[in-house]
Amino acid sequence: MTGLTYNLINPNTNYQSGVDWHLDWALSQSVSKDIYVGAVGYVYDQISADSGTGDHVGSFESRVMGVGPQINYSFTAGPLQAGLNLKAYWEFDAAHRPSGWNAWATLSLSPSEPAADKPQRPIVTK
């Protein structure tokens, strides 16, 4: 997935961050019905400078790349379908920002599929 981010000016500081471009990717393999593992990564590049009268550091265009492992576990929690995703990134090729490891944990919840909507096996009689 790729995208651009545009930021409005902060009226309290008169500072506006520049436009950034990012590319996120993931490659995964199921190891069971409920678990998949794989690799994730991203590229982040600020393509225009920060601006505004509150800009006291000048052209501050940052960039970084990251890559690392991920694991996802899907399960049912009562009436909800849940997914727990853990991923970590080693950041490198950084400019104007810190680099190193960062980790994310994400819990996603959605309603379980109603039983009436689930496909049923046809009854075969002879």
Walk me through what this model shows.
With 126 residues, the protein is mostly beta strands. The mean pLDDT is 89. The chain is built from no helices and 6 strands. The protein has a 6-stranded antiparallel β-sheet, with no helix packed on it. The chain has strands at 2-5, 20-30, 35-46, 63-77, 80-95, 101-111.
Task: Give the SSE map.
Blueprint: E1 2-5, E2 20-30, E3 35-46, E4 63-77, E5 80-95, E6 101-111
Antiparallel strand pairs: 1-2, 2-3, 3-4, 4-5, 5-6
Q: With helices defined by DSSP (H or I, 4 residues minimum), what is the helix count?
A: 0
Quaternary organisation: single chain
- Total individual domains: 1
Care to count the β-strands?
A: 6
Alpha carbon gyration radius: 22 Å
Average pLDDT: 89
Largest sheet composition: 6 strands, antiparallel
Distance between the termini: 52 Å
Which blocks of ≥5 consecutive residues have pLDDT under 50?
none
Strand order of the largest sheet: 1-2-3-4-5-6
